[in-house]
Amino acid sequence: MNQERRLIVMARPHKTNSKKTPEVVEKFLEAIRNGRSAVQACKQEGMPTCKTVNEWGKNDAAFAAQYEKAKEERGNYYG
Questions:
Q1: Cβ–Cβ under 8 Å, residues 42 and 49
Q2: Which residues have C-beta within 8 Å of that of residue 19, sequence separation ≥ 6?
Q3: Can you say how many angstroms the Cα of residue 18 is from the centroid of all Cα atoms in its chain?
């Protein structure tokens, strides 16, 4: 018997967005400033994956600086 094998790709349970728009960047940074981790921020609807955000940081010095500032402000969120 010759059976056909099929590869089933499981989609992420939420839609991701790998396009770096000002709106996506601001939504990500706002989540960080409001106490969320990058993993938590990236799990939100319409957000990029953590891998994508890491690539942005490697390839865009301005984004990397904004991200670092947001992480500092996250510390202030917790007092």
A1: yes
A2: 48
A3: 8
From the list 27, 6, 9, 8, the residue with the least C-alpha distance to 17 is 27
- Among 66, 67, 7, smallest CA distance to 37 is for 67
Who contacts 36 (Cβ-Cβ below 8 Å, separation ≥6)? 74
Lookup result for tokens 């990058």:
38
User: What whole-number distance in Å separates Cα of residue 51 and Cα of residue 25?
Assistant: 14
pTM: 0.75
| pLDDT by 10s per residue, the chain, length 79 | 455 655 554 444 545 557 899 999 999 999 999 999 999 999 999 999 999 999 999 999 999 999 999 999 998 877 6
- Residues 47, 62: Cα–Cα separation, whole Å: 19
